[in-house]
Amino acid sequence: MLIAENITKRFAGVTALENVCLEFQAGKVNAVIGENGAGKSTLMKILSGVYPDYEGRILFKGQPVRFASPREAQDGGIAIIHQELNLIPYLSITENIFLGRELTTQWGMLDRKAMRLRTQQLLDRLKLTVSPETLVAELKVGQQQVVEIAKALLIDSEVIIMDEPTSAISESEVEVLFSIIADLKKANKTIVYISHKLDELFKMADRFVVLRDGKSIESGDMRGMTHDDIIRKMVGRSVHAIRRKVGSELVKPLLTVKNLCLKHPVRTQENLLKNISFQVGRGEIVGIFGLMGAGRTELLETLFGLHPKRTSSTIELNGQKIKVNKPADAIEAGLALVPEDRKKDGLVLGLDVRTNISLTNLRSLEQGGFLNKTKETALAKKYVADLKIKTSSEKQTARNLSGGNQQKIVLSKWLATNPKLLMLDEPTRGIDVNAKNEIYKLILQLADEGMGILVVSSELPEILAISDRILVMSEGCLTSELSVDASEDEILKAAIPQTL
Amino acid sequence: MQIPLQTYRPVLLKFQSLIALLILCVAIGLLSDKFFTVANGWNVLRQISVNVCISVGMTLVVLTAGIDLSVGSVLALSGAIAAGLLRNGIELPANNLYIGFTVFGAIVAGLLTGSVLGGFNGWAITRFNLPPFVATLAMLTIARGLTMLWTEGFPITGLGDSFTFLGTGWFLGIPLPVWISGGIVLVVVLLMDQTRFGRYVYAIGGSESAARLSGVNINRIKMLVYTIAGGLAAVGGLLVTSRLDSAQPNAGTSYELDSIAAVVIGGTSLSGGRGSILGTVQGAVIIGVLNNGLVLLNVSPFWQQVVKGIVILLAVIIDKSSSRND
């Protein structure tokens, strides 16, 4: 259906893709696998017309094509559903689906009735039971994704590219998505599926293409492949899954949280977090699992002093009561937070590696009111070496590094504050397998050195792999505390809201 | 021998505004024999120094992704307060009280005026989460109105030689305003490059949420930035008032535009986080040289405005196309 021949794309001297050859077949789910920076997104941008300027050629239904714009690619029959959805929040589903392709009556007015009817048909087909008049802002992320798929179906796309479609949706929404994909397959659509989550690929994909360092390494049938096979092809060597030996000795309590509540910002009689109490021991890794909207991120934010006016709680660190009204108090007390959105909250992308690492720690680098730049550079160099951050130098702009290396910078800037308790929110989201394992290893090492660690994750395997103890949250409550031997069923059961 | 574009392109980009300035000077020099004279050189620098003072403060504001539209009015009020106090002092007939001001006292009062107005901007922006555009737009008209009230609409003149020395005097063969603006540039460059405050300003502009999570007290830094911007506008006001030996009620009108132009031509991004003080100085010099050149070449004032606008457009277009390849 879609064949790429010798695609090469260069950016200002950097080769992003080199002689990439691949074939996507109709009626199949074609997985594109590769580490971050392997060239997946560049390839997708070429296929969907974002980059009209490349070497090589693309054959679509046997005909050579070259799309000059995304619109041209869409009209040709290739739609892409980006990781960050491209919907306009305060327009209705109908208006979004028909944006730029509005139907008009013979008088040149919008034909709302026809558009609503067509939208209803599409939503029925995709089994989304909401009115076409609903504003997109009122939909859950998973539902918004379905709207994007409806948009692709409206223009009768033959190829639908999905970029990390499950990264922001809950498990039940993933099931819905997979059944939609299965239907699309039956309708002989070509699905191109990009994901880091290997489990998903084994479940969904029929064929795979592995990209590594901008080259197409191998392609073939997914059947008969194992996890290790795929990982070896991605990174070029095999990786060992890690698992921590559970310590049997008693852990001394480091953090004690009692009756933590957080009010809703608007509906103040409602609580987003309800009477949460727990402990984290010295050298202990506590994993917090929960579905979207369970309040995991809010819990970490509250502990870090981001919502001082809406919070009530008693927090003790090392047996001492602490009062956290702003992040500076939290840092002072010995807390650190690696936030969920590293590009926005974790880093100042436009600043260099050195400046980002030292940002939390400038006070200690001051001498007579001026910053000691020699010390600052030494600090950055130390972490670049310790955490194996791949960068041309500590003066490289953070924006130019891959996701895994950016996350290591965020870790560095917090480790530089010598925290007693490190809180991590989705520490490996959007990071390739290799960097993921390095980050796990680092977390284990830090715990061994006595740091308390609180990890929030929506990936069960991640929680199970590194935690000593698992807390499960649902709808703002702590619903269960489980040992690491707990089964996935047990954990999920505690995470699913009971009030449905 | 041919050098490929790739090798000297980074150098070109780094010094693009200096190169533009050089080309501008050579071009004007070729067209007018009065341009490359010592007297004209000092004249240009003295004229520029007011805009340099304001633009340095504006750069700090813009680096935090803000804007300060009030600098022109703050300049006028600060100058008028200093001039008024120096000339008339404070009279309270009811208490039979008269407070006279020395030149030094008047200068301090002028600087305080600017800083307080700037601080008020910062307070309104951080306390009520107002967009800087709106808060400083309000201050633009408030400060202008206060200037009119204070001066009753008439210039305050006859300020004495020791005050006018500030704007017209020379020291070691260099005009005093050039010393003052040069000193300010030096101090702020050090502040931005070598201190925690400078880092925080860049961090806030680059990503406010990341800076907040890193423990930066966003509100305090912003308060400081707007206070400094107001204080530097006051320095500009004192220089203008002293050079003219007169505080004009409509002094500094539309100066905010010249200073935003200097900041932008100097390569500072209006979305914050990227830029430099020295870039802004170059921007201010380019505008000053352009103004001076157009006057020397007898270009009509109307055309001068058109040319200036085109230069601003060109500068931003060049800057955009070069930063895209970062």
UniProtKB/TrEMBL annotation, chain A:
GO MF annotation list = ATP binding; ATP hydrolysis activity
Protein's UniProt name: Sugar ABC transporter ATP-binding protein
Keywords recorded for this protein, A-Z: ATP-binding, Cell membrane, Membrane, Nucleotide-binding, Repeat, Sugar transport, Translocase, Transport
Which GO terms of the cellular component aspect does the record hold?
plasma membrane
Signal in keyword set: no
How does this chain sit within the bilayer? Peripheral membrane protein
Where is this gene product found? Cell membrane
Automatic annotation (TrEMBL), chain B:
Could you name the domain of life of the organism this protein comes from? Bacteria
Chief place where the protein resides: membrane
Provide the topology term for how it sits in the membrane: Multi-pass membrane protein
Instruction: Tell me any Pfam family this protein matches.
Output: BPD_transp_2
Q: Which residues cross the membrane?
A: 12-32, 69-86, 98-120, 132-150, 170-192, 223-240
Signal sequence bounds? none
Its protein name is: Ribose ABC transporter permease
Source lineage: Bacteria, Pseudomonadati, Bacteroidota, Cytophagia, Cytophagales
Gene responsible for this protein: rbsC
